[in-house]
Each structure stands twice: as structure tokens, then as C-alpha cells.
Amino acid sequence: MKNKKALQKEAREKHRKFLRRNRKDEPELERNKPSKYEKPTILIVCEGKNTEPSYFRQFKLTTAEVKPIGEGFNTVTLVNRAIELSQKGYDQVWCVFDKDDFPDTDFNNAIQIAKTQNFGVAYSNQAFEYWILLHFDDHQGGGMHRNQYDEKINNHLKNFGLSYDGQNSKVITEEIFDLLESIDEKFEKDRKTLAIERAKRIYNRLSNISPAKEESSTTVFKLVEELNKYI
User: Fold this and answer.
1) Looking at residue 21, what DSSP letter applies?
2) Which residue of 147, 151, 187, 214 sits 20 to 30 Å from the alpha carbon of 30, by its own alpha carbon?
3) φ, ψ for residue 124 (rounded to 5)?
């Protein structure tokens, strides 16, 4: 009998095959400039130095390259850094940042500036860990302080003998990533698909006029959907 980790990896491979069959029908994000790389290259400029890069680095793309960079900058400063990095000839540039305690105007302005540059934006209000939580918990909006995320995530992870160190290393390990890609037996769907559906449902219910006011919400699902096209 296969152990739990083997079953999770098998489910992950099935999910990749499903995505490869269906990605041709999905619209493509507008490109920035011709790439100088052999494959289309997607630059992901992240606010955090650990959590987000360690997550996106584990996407195994077959027809594109993904390059996550943890800058340690935030909101407008991060977008300005992305503008500098974009000059190196990437096919897509995405900015990944959180609301945290930054002023509403900084957060909203960063989103708008990124869009004027044709960058993708994967923001979270309040923090990226909310996207991770949606793989397990259908928290459909409403206030939840980011200090609550770690405990809630670990309440789910402990059932699989795993834990997320959200206070120190802040790394999405290979074991956690495999779990995020595995099948949720209750819903008979892979957890990543469930997270996309949940995040998208919240996003479509909101006005999106002032994302800084729309807690809890995230557009990380847009970036994940884009990466899925190349799996």
C-alpha cells in the first residue's frame, strides 16, 4: 500500500497532466518585451525573502522558466524595484506583496503603478499566508489579523505531521508544497484548485476599488493560474 507522501506526489502529477491538457484554452497575460531567454521567463518579485520565493520556486514548469526573487522591499518600493529588474528582458513580471500595516494609499498606489507597467499583481490583504490557509479553510473574507494565520495553518498541517515556522524561517518546505498540491479527500479535488476557487469567489464579490480596505482577500490565485499554464 502506498504511503501518504507517495499518494500526494501521484495526485500532484495527475494535476499537472490535467493542466497541460487544458491550458491552451486560457487567455495569456500581456507580455512586457521579447525574452532573451530560451524559454519564456516569468520574473516574480516578492516582498518577502523566504515564504513567497520558497513557494513559487517549487513550481515545476515544463514550457517556461520561473524566477522568484525575494527583495525585502514593500508596496511602491517593491514595484519600483520590479521596474528596474524588468529591463533584463523577461516575458512577464509579477509583483507579490502584502498589505500588512502599510498605509492604504501606499498599498493601492503600488497596485496601480504595477498595472501601468503591465505587471501582474499578486497581493494579499493582510498577508501571503492567507493564500496558504485557503488550501485548507474556506475563509470567505472578513477580518483576520495576520498573527492568526500561523496557528490556523499549523492546525491543519499537524494532521499530516508537518509544521510551518511563520515566525523564523518562514519557508514553504517541499513537504508542505506537496501537501498543497495533493487531493483533499473531503472535496475530491486538489487543494490548489480549492484555494483558487475560494480566493476567486472572494475577489469577484468585492468591488476591487480599494484593495487596502478589502480584508481578507488575495489575488495570488491569478499568478498561480498563470503558472499552471506552463506545467
Assistant:
1) H
2) 214
3) -140, 135
